[in-house]
Structure formats: structure tokens, C-alpha cells
Amino acid sequence: MDARGYRRYWDEERETRDPARRDVLILERIQHQLHYAYERLPFYRRHYDTAGFHPDQVQSLADFTAKVPIITKKMLVEDQRDNPLFGTYQGDVADDDVARIQGSSGTSGIPTFYRVSRRDWERAADVHAMAQWAAGLRPCDIAQISFPFSLFFGGWGVIQGAERVGASVFPLGPIESDRQLELMFKLGATCFSATPSYCLHLIGVAEQLGLDLASGPVQRLLVGGEPGGSVPATVARITEAWGASVHDAGSTSEMYPFQTNITTEALNGVMLFTDEVYTEIVHRDDPHQPLPDGERGAIVYTHLWRDSQPMIRFWPGDETYMTHEPSSCGRTYPRLPEGIVGRLDDMLIIRGANVYPSNIEAGLRSTDGLGAEFTITVERRGVLDEMTVQAELSPETAAELATLSADDAQARRAAIRAEAERQLKAQTQIRVPVELLEPGALPETVFKARRVIDLRGEAT
Amino acid sequence: MDARGYRRYWDEERETRDPARRDVLILERIQHQLHYAYERLPFYRRHYDTAGFHPDQVQSLADFTAKVPIITKKMLVEDQRDNPLFGTYQGDVADDDVARIQGSSGTSGIPTFYRVSRRDWERAADVHAMAQWAAGLRPCDIAQISFPFSLFFGGWGVIQGAERVGASVFPLGPIESDRQLELMFKLGATCFSATPSYCLHLIGVAEQLGLDLASGPVQRLLVGGEPGGSVPATVARITEAWGASVHDAGSTSEMYPFQTNITTEALNGVMLFTDEVYTEIVHRDDPHQPLPDGERGAIVYTHLWRDSQPMIRFWPGDETYMTHEPSSCGRTYPRLPEGIVGRLDDMLIIRGANVYPSNIEAGLRSTDGLGAEFTITVERRGVLDEMTVQAELSPETAAELATLSADDAQARRAAIRAEAERQLKAQTQIRVPVELLEPGALPETVFKARRVIDLRGEAT
What is the domain partition of chain A in residue ranges? Predict the structure, then answer.
């Protein structure tokens, strides 16, 4: 029993299973999915025949990594373009057995379409419930959801889990921020689901409304949709201002059910439900070379249970590292200690250093006096790429500066700027100039933040 | 079996039951609900004690109408104000057993909160499925939903039914109109759910995009949220332009599950599932005086199954009439031949005539050459109220006029205007001046239309 009188796990046998025993089950499911895909899904048959791969070659998890070709978003888009609407990987699912159709924004305005069978949809609800239960959601909670309910899976995945847990669901979607907060306080919502950027943004909105988030009703934040939910300084800032634990969850739309990973109540990184979506970390230049715990590489996902549009060794282009150390929550799954660290193609090379937007975010969040919004500008100067950061002061800091003499205010700004640059140096090993902006100078982030402005393609 | 090989009814025994036998079941449920409310819900206890009513007094359906006091929206709002958040009519439901919290827009910014138990929520899915099945929705259909998924019940009720039917659900919510149509055609959505105003609005958008709705994929339109879905001329216009049947459904948020009524495939008015929500038509000045079939009066609703916030003799202020004539679809429920005709307090008295906005809508929809948008302006001139109507020309008509000589165009406009005024005279018995506007002159309706502009309170 937990502190509130509920059982501790959603599915104790599954979540605390001996990892070696779990690997046996995972291998069985991998073999099943490989044969299903090879026999019934032309997309995989073509891909595997071209690579000279056959499912019979996989007799171990090591074989799986060593021998099975990866697939990418680009391959899925091309297959849907050539075989509309759902591609030849749509799976052996009759129209009558389809529960959901969703989509993602696509280049040229045509979305990638997702088509989920009833069986897969039902199963997704259960694993999303397992994830949210692991984050502490219980039937007594009121779960307010700010993710949109529209074309993307966004809010739909969150609500499925909260409904299955048995929480009271309050699904507002992305309404105006002041209304979002007023209703949250009025209703006493104990759980709030949003992007980390939006949680940061609401800190400022709450101050303007005179609402004290830290003494407010919310006890846990289920965040996702972007990486910030595992950036330590971001998590610390949100946790302190909200007086609530931060739980990072969610992989990608291709991998629906996307909550096969979540920060549990142990708050020690993102746990991976590998018996639902098997997850590997491999070398960024060689998808058949597994990496040991702690080494950063590319993440690769495999659906173990989906019939409709199953992904086998899907390469989303995300970078991170794994650990198999035991978790104090008692679950025996591996974890991503820092969640998704960044996108492989987001890496910027600045004067020889590898810099990720998440490094910049971590540095700024560790600097007192700054607000939620910032941008990173990258430009070419001569033969070198250079980076500058524009960061807003927090509303309180701006208000404080307004009470000072001009000289004192200037000194205080210089000190904040110096501290920000010191934090960025610590994160990136290079000097990154920081420009301070007034609160409100940058566009407000109400959904996912767009941080990087890349001017390298433009004439200078 | 129906033409597509599915069973004809969702629940044949229930839907085709002998009405006398159904009334026995209804009376049992009414007695159960009255006792439950009187014993466990202080709101009802106070109200009934004040009126000198006791549940034991109801031994027949006639007793129910004659003896049970009605309740109104105002009473619910006051009870929630005095007993936040959910009022003393919230019902005997533990926090752990609450599935959903939704709200309605309220005066002074505080919504009325709706709180639905898990049992009631599950049951709502089933009756919504029964309604949508009666309108012809089947598992092979793709159901695109444009109602919002947010604070209001709107889209949530529609999606519950479509999911339970087993259709492929494509829940876009209120996205941009051109995107709504592009995705509809791309995906081949066979069912579209929207307000009637929005269906009309999309006719013009489709023309601009060069999409032919009539030969498009949509075969049925599930409409609601406002009365137009049963205004014959509106239905005719939508049916012709879309090449699809129009099914009017939905009562009020208080009465969730709101799809306890729907235009079935027989297309002969709105059928009432009276064994889910018992429905009476009574005299507008005496809620205890039942009216016979065909006579217009006030509608009164009663939840027969809800534990959470059950409504017993709820008076929404809507006006209509009923029929018990058999329906060709074989279901044995009564019907509202014209759906909800209007709101009792929407009635305008113009030179002694009772005029409803629905009369104006019906007249304009019968006039060739007009577009979707119109407004009704009411002003005081001396001691009399006067009404004028502003109606947009359709884009095709405007384009046609632009090709004519000035004299010919003027003559054509005069003819359209005269025809509109003739149609309004036929509907209202009085002369209503019509002013023709260019397409786009009035704000576009993308959700519920706001038609009446009342200037009587202003200085003239």
C-alpha cells in the first residue's frame, strides 16, 4: 500500500519482474513481431529482403541489435506517399477494427497518418495507466490536461491513461493561461499535464494573477512533448515554483502508446517499460553497435505488441544514455537518467565544441534573475559558426531593477549577465555571449518552445 | 441486417419495446430517482419539502407531471454558488468514483461545474452509441469530429458514442476550415460532426477550395449545439450541398448524456430515448399541465439512471412539440417532429406577432441566392419593436451579379430581396425588411451562430 492507501504498482508482477526473465518474454515478442512484419507487411518484407535479413536470424536480443535493419521517419513518409494513406506498414487490420486515426504535421502540408487498431488502442490505455500510476496518479486525483485534443496524439494519450487510472479527468486543452490557472485553483486540480515550457510560462502568469503556485493544489506535473522535463535545472525551477514533482514522459507519435516511459515517484530519471516498447542505445554512426550503460548514443525503439503500424527498430534521431542500476521505486526496468538529452541533428558545433540546446537551457535555468523565455541564435562569421543567447529577465527582477538608481540597475544587469555566461561556459566549455531582454520581449511559449534561430543559411 | 451487413439496432429489445411496457420501466426508474434524490441530495429534499411534495405521491407518470416541482438552471447555479463546487445535488458519489469534470460558461466567469461518476460516464457511452447507431454510424465509418474538446461537454459526448459504436474516430476539433475540409477529403471521412451553422459555412469554403462536397466522402452529418438541424429549409440546404443526411442530436449539458435524442435514419424528426431521459411537453405557464401531441409547449427532462447530479424535471426553457406516431425505422420511442423549435425566452413580439429566430432562418434558407450568414436586428421605434434582417448573398450570386450590367444587377438584387421578404412574411405573418449584404460582410460562423442583435436597451 502507498501513503494514500492504494496499491503501490499498477501491475506488480510485470513491473518488478526479474530482468532476465523479462528479457525472455521480450525476445519472444520480438520474434513474433519480426515474423508478423515480414509475412504481412510489405514495407518490412522489402526492407528486410534488400538488407538480406530474415527473422529466423534473431535468436537473441544481441542478434536483434546486430542484424535487424533500422527504419526512419523518412522511410515511413515515403511509404505513405507511395501507398496512401497508411503505407504498406499499416498492418493486417480491417477497417472495422480501427479505433483511431491521428496525424502529425508533415512537410508539404500532408500529415503522416497514424491508424490504431482497437486492440492496440485498448492496450495503450493500460500502459499509459501503468506509467501515470508509477508517477503517483491515483483515483482520488483531479487531472487537468492542457495538451491539445486534435490531430496530434498529444492530449489523447494523456487522457487515455488518466481515465484508465480512474482519476477525475478535467480535459481543458490549451485554453488561455489565466483561465487555465483560475480553473485549476477553483477546482483544486492535483495533477497538471503540460509541456515543461508551459509550466515555466505559467509561473510568470501566476505571479501576475497573484496566485501562489507553490501553495496551490497541484502536487504532480506530467510533462512531455519536448526534452526539458529531464533537464535538472529546469526540473528544479519548476519543482520549486510549483511545489510539485515533475514527471517526464512520452516518446514519439510513431511509437504510440507514447507513455511507455516516465519519471516514477523515485524521481531518478525516465523509466523505460521495455516489455512494451523495447529500447536500445546504439552508436550514432552504427545502429548495430550497442553501447554500454552511461555512453551517449542514438535511441532505437521497437513495438512489442502493436498489430497496426508496428515499429521495429525505429530510429527517431534522439540522443541519450541508459542505466540498469536498481531504482528505489522497486521497478526493475532500465532508465534514461536524463531522459532524452537532445536530437542528434540538433547538435551544434561551435568552435569545435559539441553544443546542444539542452546545455543552454540547463545553464540559464541555473542563473538567478532570468525568466522562462530564451532563444539561441547561430550565425556564420567568416568561416566559423558563432552562437549568442538572448534571455529574458524575470518579471520580479525587472520590477526590482526599476526601483534602483540607473547605476545600480546597470551593475545588477551586468552581474546577472556575467553569471549566465559563467553557467553557459560550465555547460558548454565555450564562451557564449548572453544578451538580456525585458520580460515579454520574446514570444510567449504556450506549447512547445522554438528556441534555436539559425541564420547560417542567410547572407551576412 | 442493414444494407451494409450490420445489425439494424444497437439494442433491439430496448429500442422496439412495446411503449406501454416501457412506461412501466420508466415509472420504476422515476420512483427510484425520486427516492434517491429525496433521501441523499439536500438540494432536492429542500425543494420538495418546500413544495409539500414527497416521492410516495408518485404512483403513475401522470402523477409525476402533476405533482413533482420543476427545477431550473438558475436554481442549480445558486446551489453551486452556495455550496461549491458541485452543489448539494452532486449526488452520493465518492471522489474516487468520479470519471469526469466538465463545465459550462457561466455569468461572472465562474462556470457551472459538471461532475460525472464512472458508472454514469460508462452508461453515457452506451446511449450515445445507441443514438449514433440509429443515425446510421457503423464500425466501417470514419467519424470526423469538429466540436471542441475542452471545458464543455461538446466533443466529448460525440466521441464517446463514436468510440463505442466502433467507428474509426478522427477527432480534429475546431481547426481551420480549409484544413478541416482538406483532411476530410484526403482521409475519406464518411461522417462529420459539427453545428448546422458550421456545415452551412463549410459549403462556401468548399466552393472557394474547388471541392465538391456533394460528391465528397461524407454520407452523414451529426449536427447539434443549436436548433438549425431540424429547421426543414436548413436541413434541405445542407443535405443538397453535402449530399449527406442530416441528423440532429443533443439536449443540454445538464442532461448529459446529451445524445438521448437523435434524427434516426428515417429522417422524420428527433427521436427521444425516453427510457434514458424521460421527456415531457407541458404548458409554458404551467409545468404540471401536460400537452397533447402536436401542441407547442415547454420541454421537461428527467434523468432515469444518473447517480451524479441527476436532473429531475429539469426545465431548460426550450419550446417544442411531440408526436407518438410510429416511425418507419421501427423504434417505438416518441419524436420531436421539428426538434427544438426555439427558446421560450427567444420569442420576440413584433407588432403583436410571436416571432422566433428559427422562423427567420427557415425563411432565408428557402430563398435562392443567399449565403449562410445572417443577423436579426431588433430595435424600438417609438413604442413599437421593429425587426430587420441582414442577409449575405452567396459567393456564387455575388460573382454572377458582377458579370451583369449595373441595371440588371440592381434588378436581380431587388428580386432576391423581394423573395426573401415574401418567405419571411410566410413564416412570421408580418413584413420584415431585408437588407442584402456582400459575402463576407458578417463575421464567419465557425461554432454556434449568434444571430440576434437586440438594440432595444440602447438610446435611439
Answer: 347-454
- The residue among A87, A110, A99 whose CA lies nearest residue B142 is A99
A-chain residues near B147 (CB < 8 A):
none
Confidence class for position B120, pLDDT limits 50, 70, 90:
very high
Does residue B257 have a cis bond before it (omega within 30 degrees)?
Answer: yes
The reported pLDDT for the residue numbered A448 is: 64
Quick check: A388 and A434 in contact, CB under 8 A? yes
Q: What is the pLDDT of residues B172-221, one digit of tens each?
A: 999 999 999 999 999 999 999 999 999 999 999 999 999 999 999 999 99
Contact A149/B96, CB-based, under 8 Å?
A: no
pLDDT digits (tens, 9 = 90+) for A384-432: 778 899 999 998 899 999 999 999 999 999 999 999 999 998 888 889 9
pLDDT in tens, B381-402: 877 778 899 999 998 899 999 9
pTM of the model: 0.84
Which residue of B100, B115, B169 is in closest CB contact with A99?
A: B169
Alpha carbons A73 and B423: distance in angstroms, whole number: 58
Per-residue pLDDT for A274 more than 90? Answer: yes
pLDDT tens for each residue of B298-351: 999 999 999 999 999 999 999 999 999 999 999 999 999 999 988 887 777 787
Whether the bond between A85 and the residue before it is cis, its omega within 30 degrees of 0, is yes
Indicate the residue of B85, B150, B163 with minimum beta-carbon distance to A173.
Answer: B150
C-alpha cell at A36: 508478423
Counting residues of chain B whose pLDDT is more than 70, the rounded percentage is 97
Express each pLDDT in A234-251 by its tens digit: 999 999 999 999 999 999
Residue of A86, A98, A308 to mutate when probing chain B, most B C-beta within 10 A: A98
CATH class (in words) of the domain with range A347-454: alpha beta
| Helix, strand, coil shares, percent, chain A, to 5 | 40, 25, 40
Strands B220-223 and B245-248, how do they pair?
Answer: parallel
- B150:A151 CB<8 A: no
**Which residues of B sit within 8 Å Cβ distance of A?**
85, 95-103, 109-111, 113, 115, 118, 139-140, 142, 148-151, 155-156, 163, 166, 168-173, 175, 182-183, 186-187
Q: Which residue in A100, A142, A172 is closest to B151 by CB distance?
A: A172
Q: Give the pLDDT score at B457.
A: 63
Query: Using a CB-CB distance cutoff of 8 angstroms, which residues of chain B are in contact with residue A170?
Result: 100-102
Is 50 exceeded by the pLDDT of residue A16? yes
Burial class (CB in 10 A: 0-12, 13-18, 19+), B391: buried
Residues B305-342: b if buried by 16+ CB within 10 A, e if exposed = bbbbbbbbbbbbbbbbbbeeeebebebbbbbbbbbbbb
pLDDT at A443 over 90: no
DSSP string, B360-418: HHHHHHTSTTEEEEEEEEEEEETTEEEEEEEEEEPHHHHHHHHTS-HHHHHHHHHHHHH
The rounded distance, in Å, linking the Cα atoms of B375 and B391 is: 7
| Among B186, B191, B192, B309, the residue to mutate for chain A (most A Cβ within 10 A) | B186
* Interchain proximity B156–A171, CB inside 8 Å: yes
How many angstroms separate the Cα of A372 from the Cα of each of A197, A224, A438, A450, B352?
Answer: 7, 17, 12, 13, 62
Would the CA dihedral through B351, B353, B354, B356 be positive or negative?
A: negative
- Number of Cβ within 10 Å of residue A194's Cβ equals 26
Task: Give the SS3 label for residue A131.
Answer: helix
Q: Closest by alpha carbon to A373, among A389, A350, A355, A396?
A: A389
List CB contacts (< 8 A) between B115 and chain A: 168
Q: What share of chain B is helix, strand, coil (3-state, %, to 5)?
A: 40, 25, 40
Do the beta carbons of residue A184 and residue B111 sit within 8 Å?
A: no
